[in-house]
């Protein structure tokens, strides 16, 4: 999640745990602890693939943060004994303020490396977008009440309750969307295909489903207000003929560990050279994927891994098409019309099948 929301979450947790003892100081300290794990963004690993895949790594590890919470609790118990706060209470304060950060990140698309340093893929159960105004406002409302009044503990607890209720609603919405998708996938024989169901930006009313079946990549939008309209699938190519080349290099293997099968491969000209590019299909939409990485370039008849991977842009549709897509996406929140039809924004060589209404 964004840094403001993480600070608000840490502040609310801090106020709920030690607000009665420390007052507004608990809110302030909690806010600082809530943003602490994201300080890893200042680290530059010298490579675009490394920078993306190492983020939410060691600084979000349950092991590391539990150790840090224990150390801080012992220090506070030693340095501030007069406050009559037990070491167990300090430990709960630091632990909850720190751990709620990666646990919330695990509810977004890219997930979190909760079990670092174990070589386990990021944990992700996406039910909220990386920026969700309603979730953030629930926390901020409680914090404003805590800062304005005397009952810090109660106000923060109410903020956490409202934010938690919103997450429960989001989880229920995801289950409802998956149930609506099930018969469509059964008709296509895609019941066992790897899938990713996630909310579209800034809301939990409209959801995007991405499925992978060999070289095929399917997309669907499902809204809670779609009524009886059956979800439709748009079908694209993934360029799996380039998969062995990508997987023959460490960066390609790292991306596969990070994104699983949700990758597209292509060769296009970059700086005058034929370049192998891997695109993460999880964030954005077809035609609007922001995370693409250069992996290798052709020298004569041979492919060589690039010394440093770059994060590339586009190719994106024209500005007019972008505005049209955003307008259609906003309209889809409250009903099935107009269809987004992402196939309109994708190069013809990637499209396999578009629904008849597109």
Describe the structure in your own words:
- The protein folds into two domains: 3-170, no CATH class; 205-358, no CATH class.
- Helices cover 44% and strands 16% of the residues.
- It has helices spanning 3-22, 24-35, 48-54, 62-79, 87-105, 133-148, 152-188, 243-247, 250-259, 319-331, and strands at residues 195-199, 206-213, 216-223, 234-237, 263-270, 273-280, 292-299, 302-305, 311-312, 351-353.
- Strand 5 (263-270) and strand 6 (273-280) form a beta hairpin.
- The chain is globular, with a radius of gyration of 23 Å.
- Helix 1 packs antiparallel against helix 2 (24-35).
- The longest helix is centred in the middle third of the chain and has 37 residues, at 152-188.
- The two termini are 34 Å apart.
- The model has no long low-confidence stretch (mean pLDDT 92).
- The chain has a five-stranded antiparallel sheet with strand order 1-2-3-4-10. Strands 5, 6, 7, 8 and 9 form a five-stranded antiparallel sheet that branches.
- The protein is of the alpha+beta class.
- The chain crosses the membrane at residues 57-75, 87-104, 124-148, 155-177.
- Keywords: Membrane, Transmembrane, Transmembrane helix.
- This is Integral membrane protein.
- It comes from Bisbaumannia pacifica.
- Pfam families: YdjM.
């Amino acid at each position: 999640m964004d840094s403001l929301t993480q600070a608000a979450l840490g502040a609310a947790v801090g106020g709920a745990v030690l607000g009665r003892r420390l007052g507004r100081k608990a809110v302030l300290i909690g806010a600082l602890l809530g943003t602490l794990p994201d300080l890893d963004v200042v680290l530059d690993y010298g490579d675009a693939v490394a920078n993306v895949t190492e983020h939410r790594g060691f600084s979000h590890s349950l092991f590391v943060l539990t150790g840090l919470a224990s150390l801080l609790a012992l220090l506070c118990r030693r340095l501030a004994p007069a406050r009559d706060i037990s070491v167990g209470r300090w430990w709960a304060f630091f632990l909850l303020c720190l751990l709620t950060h990666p646990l919330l990140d695990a509810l977004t698309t890219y997930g979190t490396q909760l079990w670092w340093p174990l070589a386990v893929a990021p944990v992700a159960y996406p039910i909220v977008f990386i920026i969700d105004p309603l979730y953030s406002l629930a926390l901020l409302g409680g914090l404003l009440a805590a800062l304005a009044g005397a009952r810090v503990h109660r106000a923060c607890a109410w903020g956490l309750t409202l934010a938690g209720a919103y997450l429960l609603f989001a989880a229920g919405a995801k289950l409802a969307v998956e149930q609506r998708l099930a018969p469509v996938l059964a008709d296509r024989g895609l019941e066992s295909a790897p899938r990713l169901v996630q909310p579209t930006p800034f809301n939990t009313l409209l959801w995007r489903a991405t499925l992978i079946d060999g070289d095929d990549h399917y997309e669907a939008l499902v809204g809670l207000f779609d009524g009886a309209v059956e979800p439709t699938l748009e079908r694209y190519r993934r360029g799996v003929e380039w998969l062995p080349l990508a997987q023959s290099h460490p960066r390609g293997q790292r991306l596969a560990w990070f994104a699983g099968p949700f990758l597209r491969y292509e060769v296009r000209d970059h700086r005058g050279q034929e370049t192998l590019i891997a695109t993460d299909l999880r964030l954005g939409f077809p035609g609007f994927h922001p995370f693409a990485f250069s992996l290798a370039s052709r020298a004569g008849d041979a492919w060589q891994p690039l010394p440093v991977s770059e994060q590339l842009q586009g190719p994106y549709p024209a500005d007019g098409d972008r505005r049209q897509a955003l307008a259609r996406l906003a309209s889809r929140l409250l009903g099935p019309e107009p269809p987004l039809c992402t196939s309109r924004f994708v190069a013809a060589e990637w499209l396999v099948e578009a629904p008849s209404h597109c």
